[in-house]
Specification:
With 128 residues, the chain is mainly alpha-helical. Helices cover 46% and strands 0% of the residues. It is built from one helix and no strands.
Length: 128
């Protein structure tokens, strides 16, 4: 329709077709921030961490217990060997002292199994 056509005296005579909403309206627009859950919650992470730490402390305690038992076993074995080692050292010292003193002998027999015996002190420093 153009100007000057019959029947048009004003712009208001042009039939207008206006866009409108579809029947039932437009769908609603989601404008709220909705972040999907991307993993476990903080409480779950804390609980798992606590369980892992408790298990670690348990294992450390078990290894400390085993290490302590091994150390006590070694100490008991050494304590059991001390009298035998001391008697061997006593016998060796008696032999060396007899050689040193010209095999003069000692009054009576020397009991090499006496565990409280100690060799004489050697002179040290200014006491030579």
């Amino acid at each position: 329709m153009r100007r000057g056509q019959p029947g048009l005296k004003s712009i208001k005579d042009i039939p207008s077709v206006q866009d409108g909403p579809p029947p039932g309206g437009f769908p609603s627009i989601r404008y709220a921030r909705r972040v999907p859950s991307s993993g476990p919650t903080g409480v779950t992470l804390f609980a798992v961490g606590a369980v892992v730490m408790a298990y670690g402390f348990y294992k450390v305690g078990q290894s400390n217990h085993a290490r302590r038992e091994e150390r006590e076993e070694i100490v008991r074995a050494r304590k059991a060997l001390v009298p035998f080692l001391q008697s061997e050292e006593d016998a060796r010292w008696v032999e060396k002292s007899r050689e040193f003193y010209g095999k003069r002998g000692v009054d009576g027999e020397v009991n090499v199994y006496k565990t409280r015996w100690m060799p004489p002190a050697q002179p040290v420093g200014a006491f030579k």
